[in-house]
């Protein structure tokens, strides 16, 4: 059952920790704080903001979620339902909480929507293939 927990809940928790002051001083302005800085060979300085790092973290987790969507069995249904509930939580927070009205949060919410859509699409596609296999080929 632990595998059914959507991993995209982690960026939601991290975002809320950042804007509520647990990391980098708090507030929406904390999303612009430098997370990583590298001196490039060209002499330029590459800086990754905390908000951008959250988005990259979400993209990496979305990849894992899409891989999880290829599983078959009873656990996949729970995974899809929990992913849908997580998207609803993102949407409600985006619409109701002032600190969530940022482009970073919006992108994280869209990643959650892609997780829901991809999860159902992959499951339906694989179910069709399982259903069509048999004597005589396709239906």
Description:
The chain has about 140 residues and is mainly α. It has one domain. The chain is built from four helices and two strands. β1 and β2 form a beta hairpin.
Poorly predicted spans: none
Q: How many structural domains in the coordinates?
A: 1
The main pleated sheet reads as: 2 strands, antiparallel
SS elements, strand count:
2
| Mean of residue pLDDT values | 86
Q: What's the helix count?
A: 4
What does the overall shape look like?
globular
First CA to last CA: what distance? Answer: 34 Å
> What is the subunit organization of this protein?
single chain
Please provide the ordered H/E string of secondary-structure elements.
HEEHHH
- Helical fraction equals 55-70%
In short:
This protein has 139 residues and is mainly α. It contains four helices and two strands.
Keywords, separated by commas or semicolons:
139 residues; mainly alpha; 4 helices; 60% helix; 8% strand; globular
Per-chain topology:
Elements lengths: L8 H11 L14 E6 L5 E5 H20 L4 H23 L6 H30 L7
């Amino acid at each position: 059952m632990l595998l059914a927990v959507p991993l995209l809940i982690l960026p939601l928790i991290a975002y809320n920790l950042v804007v509520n002051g647990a990391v980098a001083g708090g507030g929406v302005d904390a999303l612009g704080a430098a997370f990583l800085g590298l001196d490039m060979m060209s002499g330029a300085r590459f800086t990754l903001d905390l908000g951008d790092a959250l988005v990259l973290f979400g993209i990496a987790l979305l990849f894992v979620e899409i891989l999880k969507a290829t599983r078959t069995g009873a656990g996949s249904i729970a995974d899809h339902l929990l992913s849908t509930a997580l998207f609803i939580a993102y949407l409600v927070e985006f619409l109701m909480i002032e600190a969530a009205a940022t482009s970073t949060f919006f992108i994280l919410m869209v990643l959650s929507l892609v997780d829901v859509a991809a999860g159902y699409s992959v499951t339906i596609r694989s179910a069709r293939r399982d259903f069509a296999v048999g004597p005589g080929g396709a239906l």
